[in-house]
Amino acid sequence: MALWQKKTRLKPQDVDQEIKLDLRSEAGLLKSTLLHRLSLINVPWGKLSDAQSSRGTFRETWILRWQPEYSVALAEALVHGVTIDQAAGNAALQRARETASVTELASLIQSTLVADLPETATACIELLQAVAVSSSDLTDLMQSVAPLAGVLRYGTARRVPEETLRSLIRSMSVEINAGVRLASRSLDEEATTARIRAMEVFDDALALFGDDVLTATWCRELGHIVEDDLATPGIVGLCLRRLHDRRDWDLDKVSVEFVRHTGSGDPQSAGQFLEAFLRGGADVILQDPALLQLLDNWICELDDTSFTDTLPLLRRSFSDLESGGRRRILTKLRQPLQHTETVLPATGEDPGEAAFEAALPLLYQILGLGGRP
Predict the structure, then answer these.
(1) What are the sequence ranges of the domains in the chain?
(2) What does the angle CA 55 – CA 57 – CA 62 come to, to the nearest 5 degrees?
(3) Alpha-helix residue ranges (DSSP H) falling in the chain
(4) Other Cβ atoms within 10 Å of 15 Cβ, number
(5) 3-state SS, residue 54
């Protein structure tokens, strides 16, 4: 450890120090390698200030603080090896052999790659391949693809077994595509929430990975889920939204399925569908005029009874959006009325504007905005 500190010119101090590393330089890469290896042997001398965005890129920002107990942890790590690289590699490999979690194995692969331990990473990849074949947890598999695809997409200054890693991602993605439809049925609320998050990160990971065949198969399976009457409503809502975002389905087809699932007659199912369909925040909705128009048309076409029955669903679905975003959506919906050329009556009052003003109190209640600004 003393030799590494001298080589990297890092002094152990009991105060917070921020360092910014350029991994394309030898000095920056050495510092990063040391800190990542120490993390694997439970010596967190440095913590990445933004771990998710920093991994796999050429820049890292660390916060350093040495604590006395780290010396004890270094001594304990001797059971894994007499040098830091030996101890880090063997400690990671032991953890990999002791777990059956696909997600944990994927995280270990990523950690060993950024710690410049390619041999250990290769061994972990082999273990993950064996576990993935027998895994029945599709949510776990989906969450595991993202960190692996991120390493390939953004590159790294370390040695990476690229072909082996690509083969692993491809085989896991094939497994996911083959089982996602049947695995999307009869999920409880907790499993649905976890699956939705996993599907989002997997969908993003496929876009990073850039395999057209895998992506086409995935989109086809999303469509099958939307058309499957046995699929969990929340999963269906996410699938339809992703198909719309990717522009794989035209708006008319999306509209038909949207109306079918929101008018299912079961308020709970319709609410789960709508909540998942509207995920992503107000800004995403505001930047997609077609999506906003779809929602607006659907609400306007409801009859009085259906509209009243739908209010609780709307309130729940919009509750996840921050209040400023909800206000911007309301303003956006009002803009077409403000710019429409109409023949005004003798009073000078725009009937469309008057109708909108009359509806505002109810709209503010639906959006959960309280009183008017």
Answers:
(1) 1-179, 183-279, 303-341+349-373
(2) 55
(3) 2-8, 26-40, 51-54, 69-76, 84-98, 102-114, 118-134, 138-154, 162-179, 189-209, 212-227, 233-245, 251-262, 267-277, 282-286, 289-300, 304-318, 323-339, 351-366
(4) 7
(5) helix
Which residue shows structure tokens 């929340």? 234
How far, in Å, are 8, 171, 365 from residue 111 at the CA level?
A: 20, 21, 48
Instruction: Indicate the DSSP class of residue 181.
Output: T
Counting Cβ atoms within 10 Å, is residue 52 exposed (0-12), middle (13-18) or buried (19+)? exposed
pLDDT digits (tens, 9 = 90+) for 51-93: 444 444 678 899 999 999 999 999 999 999 999 999 999 999 9
**Which residue pairs, CB below 8 angstroms and at least 24 apart, start in 68-77?**
68/14, 70/12, 70/43, 70/44, 70/45, 73/41, 73/42, 73/43, 74/1, 74/41, 74/43, 76/42, 77/41, 77/42, 77/43
C-alpha–C-alpha distance, residues 156 and 158, integer Å: 5
Structure tokens belonging to residue 163: 């072909």
* Structure tokens that stand for 9 in this block: 């010119």
Structural Rg of the chain based on CA atoms? 26
Cα separation, 71 vs 193, whole angstroms: 42
Three-state secondary structure call for residue 61? strand
How does strand 17-22 pair with strand 59-64? antiparallel
- DSSP 8-state symbol, 158: S
Contact 238, 277 (CB under 8 A): yes
- DSSP secondary structure letter of residue 185: B
Global confidence as pTM: 0.73
Q: pLDDT (tens digit, 9 = 90+) per residue, 160-172?
A: 888 888 999 999 9
Q: What percent of the chain has pLDDT over 70?
A: 85
* Phi, then psi, of 19 in degrees rounded to 5: -125, 140
